[in-house]
Amino acid sequence: MKSDDSLNGVLLVDKGPDMTSHDVVAVARRCLNTRKIGHCGTLDPMATGMLILVVGAATKLSDLLMSEDKEYTGTLKLGQVTNTQDREGTVTEEKPVPAFSDGEIKAAFEAFQGDFYQMPPMVSAIKVNGVPLHKLARKGQEVAREPRFVRVYGHEITRVELPEIDFRIVCSKGFYVRTYAHDIGQKLGCGAHLTALRRTRSGHFTFKPGNHTTFDALKQGRSDEVRAAMMSLYDVSKLRGA
């Protein structure tokens, strides 16, 4: 079937767990019968929530949309460090979790507020000499990385049931929430890793009834439903106040 090159717009997908961002793009290409689709801001397979797909002429907006701040909700588990900084990895260190006070937990989170440098994890898509770090990590290699300048605009601790802590965070592009969880664990002295992550907002985009689709709808080829959820370039421009 000939590719439909008339489609242009932005499609918000509520990504489920256990799939890559690339998987979502591949299934969207088949559902919409168009080649020109990309995504803005990778979500790890473990993570759920907002994945922005750009279709047709909207692919030119990719860098612009990726550069905006993001909001996530997540859960970290104290007492265990993993080699990926999340629950997908192998536990490399275990320590007992003290009965931290609310003040101690609050202080650890506040140490990572505002502007600071974050060391990207080895398991990431960042390239060193053209090779993604995660490929080197899978071979057991660790290489020197450059710290990245990042910003946390705001955070909220929403549940503390040790060893678990739920939180909400608004951060800049290029921010690794699993590294944030790992670093908070280091600050508290007992280690931690990320066990759940959901992206709830990206820039001006939030989930509202009718403005997004799901992986199931894409996989089942419900193209009319998916097209109805797509935002036109005009809609995107208006949303961003342009």
Q: Report the CATH C-level class of the largest domain.
A: Alpha Beta
The name of the CATH topology of the largest domain is Pseudouridine synthase
Order of H and E elements: EHEEHEEEHEEEHEEHEEEHHH
Radius of gyration: 19 Å
Task: Summarize the main sheet.
Answer: 10 strands, mixed
CATH architecture of the largest domain: 2-Layer Sandwich
- Percentage beta strand: 25-35%
Outline the structure in words.
- The protein is of the alpha+beta class and 242 residues long.
- The chain folds into 2 domains: 9-67 and 203-239, Pseudouridine synthase, CATH 3.30.2350; 70-120 and 148-201, Pseudouridine synthase (2-Layer Sandwich).
- The protein is 26% helix and 34% strand.
- The chain has 8 helices and 14 strands.
- The protein has helices at 21-32, 62-66, 102-110, 133-138, 177-188, 215-219, 223-229, 233-239; strands at residues 9-15, 37-40, 48-55, 70-78, 80-82, 91-94, 114-118, 127-128, 131-132, 148-161, 164-171, 192-202, 205-206, 212-214.
- Strands 1, 2, 3, 4, 7, 10, 11, 12, 13 and 14 form a 10-stranded mixed sheet that branches. A two-stranded antiparallel sheet has the order 5-6.
- A hairpin with a 2-residue loop joins strand 8 (127-128) and strand 9 (131-132).
- Helix 3 crosses helix 5.
- The protein is globular, with a radius of gyration of 19 Å.
- The relative contact order is 0.23.
- The model has no long low-confidence stretch (mean pLDDT 91).
